[in-house]
Automatic annotation (TrEMBL):
Assigned GO CC terms: membrane
PANTHER family xref list: CALCOFLUOR WHITE HYPERSENSITIVE PROTEIN PRECURSOR, PGAP2-INTERACTING PROTEIN
UniProt-listed GO biological process terms: GPI anchor biosynthetic process
Name of the protein this chain belongs to: EEP domain-containing protein
Any one GO MF annotation of this record: catalytic activity
Name of a matching Pfam family: Exo_endo_phos
Start and end residues of each Endonuclease/exonuclease/phosphatase domain: 14-245
SUPFAM superfamilies: DNase I-like (SSF56219)
Length: 254
């Protein structure tokens, strides 16, 4: 009989970085944002609205990184990263990204765009945890603005979790759900057994938007086959000056 493995705890962070600009694109803040992300000491970072490249911004801002923003943010802290390009335009593209201190052994970006110009993706990464027999599946999302689009996208996430991930594997689904009515909780719970960590801890999802005075509960961390501890909304200073979304963090044990 195989010996039971010791519990393993790691920290996750999710934040919509608004392409490195403050609200209304007043200031380019990616350098300050990198310092703030580092200060959280997360093992896995889920990022939304990450610029892969933008020709005009690099001409206008002297401190605009020449490498993709997910690489700039990862720097020497997170040696593994993955990027899912979703929105492509004349001057560049942006999407979701995941930074990891653990090896990313596989990743795939799933196009979950429904209709019209709004492009959305689901970035699924498989993380190899040292000494663990079962990989962790980390899924970074930024869902649509229309409720009927979000419902279809959530059903696709259910299919992904049920069909592409082993039933006993730990799953972390995090990002900007744009779900101001809170419909995602029941869909993901009944559809694939994912539970939101703030609801488990506090009875309700966290308020994250707008960051300066959060009213809407848009950002989430859902888990399956993992226990969450001490989920927190990160403090307004300095975060409310860095993005229009408040970041969320939690410690997870598998």
């Amino acid at each position: 009989m195989a010996a039971e493995q010791e519990p393993f705890t790691f920290k996750v962070l999710t934040v919509n970085i608004h392409k490195g600009f403050t609200t209304f694109n007043r200031r380019f803040m990616l350098h300050e944002l990198r310092d703030a992300v580092r200060s959280v000491s997360a093992d896995v970072v889920f990022l939304q609205e990450v610029l892969g490249t933008h020709a005009k911004h690099s001409d206008r801002h002297a401190n605009f990184p020449q490498n993709p923003h997910y690489e700039f943010l990862a720097d020497e802290i997170w040696h593994q990263f993955a990027y899912g390009r979703n929105a492509v335009y004349d001057n560049g593209h942006h999407g979701n990204a995941l930074l990891s201190k653990f090896p990313i052994v596989h990743y795939q970006n799933h196009d979950v765009s429904i209709a019209g110009p709004e492009r959305r993706g689901v970035l699924h990464c498989v993380l190899r945890i040292p000494g663990r027999e079962t990989d962790v599946h980390a899924i970074c999302v930024h869902l649509g603005l229309a409720e009927n689009h979000r419902r279809q996208q959530l059903m696709r996430i259910n299919d992904l979790v049920n069909n592409d991930i082993p039933k006993g594997a730990p799953v972390v689904l995090a990002g900007d759900f744009n779900d101001w009515r809170g419909r995602a909780h029941e869909i993901l719970d009944k559809g694939c057994g994912l539970h939101e960590v703030f609801i488990q801890a506090n009875g309700e999802a966290a308020r994250t938007f707008p960051a300066k005075m959060p009213v809407l509960r848009l950002d989430r961390i859902y888990v399956r086959n993992a226990d969450a501890h001490a989920p927190i909304v990160l403090p307004k200073k300095p975060w409310s000056t860095l993005s229009d979304h408040a970041p969320l963090a939690a410690e997870l044990t598998i």
